[in-house]
Amino acid sequence: MPENAVNMHVHTTYSYNAYGYTPAGYAELALEAGLEVAGIVDFDVLDGLNEFRAAGQDQGLKTCVSLESRVFVPEFADRVINSPGEPGIAYHMGIGFTTTDLTATATSFLENMRQRASARNRELVARVNAFMSPVELDYDNDVIPLTPTGNATERHICLAYANKAVAQFDSAESLSTFWREKLGTNDLDLPNGPHIQSFIRSKTMKRGGIGYVQPGSGSFPTMKEMNEFVLAAGAIPCFTWLDGTSPGEQAIEELFDVGIATGGAFLNVIPDRNLQGGTASNLCDVIKLARSLDMPVIAGTEMNSPGTRFVDDFDSPELAPLLPEIHRGSLIAYAHSALQAQAGLGYLSEWATNNFNSIANKNSFYEKIGAGLDPCKESLLSKANSSYQPPRILSLLEETDDE
């Protein structure tokens, strides 16, 4: 594995990790694996933020905390973007969150996201229960206990159905018969392995399934609303990339224009998905486009489904040429996190706007901070304030804790 390998997109137990990684647990493993920068991202919540940031500073790991959700993009209402089969709906992120002490407006937005997700899940379970009978879930008793803070996802629900079926049937034969009749396949790793969970999800919860409801314009916040929340929280709005095959992603320049107008500034990609899906050339193209816009790029493997890699294969012929760009974006994201947390001087802060005459110059500064800062000494940056010029902030990296 290259010494500058990174993984900036890992879901934790707060929104389902296939390997049971907590934020602190992932930080420890990332450090052991030699990752230079690591990032977590959870759906609709920032519940792992303090744990992950503290683990990074204690252990000397450069970290970044992100949040992912789905948004509605009115300008793309008739085009599928990166949520398959769902026109106008896009997975979207905020990266570089550093505190859960948010403004009242931002706190309300975040709580609304959590409540919307819970309501969708409960309605989903009610529909799927009718199909799964006699295996029926009690959401509060069967699903919520699988989560640390109640933020369940479809993957938690799938695991809950698999567990419930085990309790319902008293023999392996009757369990196998039940699932074969419900899912129409014998390709199952009973009682609750990844295949059975995947089949439950695809059969009942995705497009065409009994529990699926086509989302519309009111199902999720707009990209503009999401970006406003991210900015208010001191973080960075970030586009997400699937594989470049949808009508929306084939118009990615237009999508970038729409999002940049309300603060979009980074791009997140999942390289292994493109390698597995044969769309590596599309991945190269979108990173080339981001480079032309001086838009930093981050990447990761998700780890919210069994079989996903701990880190991308950056030694592969397809990804090796992309690693410098991804590594650079990760350093910039980490530097934003450190400067925002310690001094309020993040990547999209008023200070950054006033001190850099181009995105390229801003990227160069934050990259230097990200490369030179020891995570155990982030507090050195607390000496900075909005009157500091960039060179003076860089000089703080040379100081010791007792100066």
Overview of the molecule:
This protein has 403 residues and is of the alpha/beta class. It has 2 domains: 6-102 and 233-395, Metal-dependent hydrolases (TIM Barrel, Alpha-Beta Barrel), CATH 3.20.20.140; 113-204, no CATH class. It has helices at residues 23-33, 49-59, 104-132, 139-143, 154-168, 172-183, 194-204, 223-232, 247-250, 252-260, 271-277, 280-292, 323-343, 350-355, 359-372, 390-396; strands spanning 6-10, 37-43, 62-72, 89-95, 236-240, 266-269, 297-299. Strands 1-2-3-4-5-6-7 form a 7-stranded mixed beta sheet. Helix 2 links the parallel strand 2 (37-43) and strand 3 (62-72). Helix 1 (23-33) runs parallel beside helix 2 and helix 13 packs across helix 15 (359-372). It starts with 5 loop residues before the first strand and ends in a 7-residue tail after the last helix. The mean pLDDT is 95.
Helix content: 40-55%
Q: Any idea of the CATH topology of the largest domain?
A: TIM Barrel
The CATH homologous superfamily of the largest domain is named Metal-dependent hydrolases
Largest sheet: 7 strands, mixed
The CATH class label of the largest domain is: Alpha Beta
Second CATH tier, the architecture of the largest domain: Alpha-Beta Barrel
Q: How are the strands of the largest sheet arranged? A: 1-2-3-4-5-6-7
Strand runs, count: 7
Q: Overall mean pLDDT score? A: 95
**Overall number of structural domains:** 2
Poorly predicted sequence stretches spanning 5 or more consecutive residues: none
> Distance between the terminal alpha carbons, to the nearest Å?
37 Å
Strand content: 5-15%
Order of helices and strands: EHEHEEHHHHHHEHHEHHEHHHH
Indicate the structural class. alpha/beta
Q: What overall form do the CA principal axes indicate? A: globular
Number of helices: 16
Radius of gyration: 22 Å
